Amino acid sequence: PLQAVMAQGVYTPDPDKKVLAQTKAARFDKRDGTNTTSFCVSIGGKVVDVKTKKKFPGDPQVDQIIRDAIKKWRFKPFIVGGKLVKTCTERTFNIKFSK
């Protein structure tokens, strides 16, 4: 589950608000939305296999910004039964652009 994965987080900043503010969704549409992105944590603690599961409506640039942010995340490796394991989950982001 997401809580267990995020509890192992060493570096997990949110997507950059300044970069999100430059998107079409923020500047013109002013429409809120959600994005769900799946990712895995390798046995070394790096994020791999980042994929958008539910796209932000009307602006693929928002999805890209979120994927780029997740790729920078770092975690403590997961150990199950004394062995390092790759762990996968997904996270939903609620993006607000309306004033």
Detailed description of the structure:
A three-stranded antiparallel beta sheet has the order 3-2-7, covered by helices on one side. It contains four helices and seven strands; from the N terminus they run αβααββαββββ. The chain has helices spanning 2-7, 17-20, 24-29, 60-71; strands spanning 9-11, 33-41, 47-54, 74-75, 78-80, 83-85, 87-95. The chain is an alpha+beta fold and 99 residues long. The longest helix has 12 residues, at 60-71.
Strand tally, please? 7
**Radius of gyration (Å):** 15 Å
* Share of β-strand residues: 35-45%
Q: Major β-sheet, in short? A: 3 strands, antiparallel
DSSP summary: helix tally: 4
Question: Which structural class do you get from the secondary structure elements?
Answer: alpha+beta
Largest beta sheet: what is the strand line-up?
3-2-7
> How far apart lie the N and C ends?
33 Å
Helix content: 25-40%
On the 0 to 100 scale, the average pLDDT is: 95
Low-confidence stretches: none
Q: Helices and strands, in N-to-C order?
A: HEHHEEHEEEE
Shape descriptor: elongated
Key terms:
single chain; 99 residues; alpha+beta; 3-stranded antiparallel beta sheet; two-stranded antiparallel ribbon; 7 strands; 28% helix
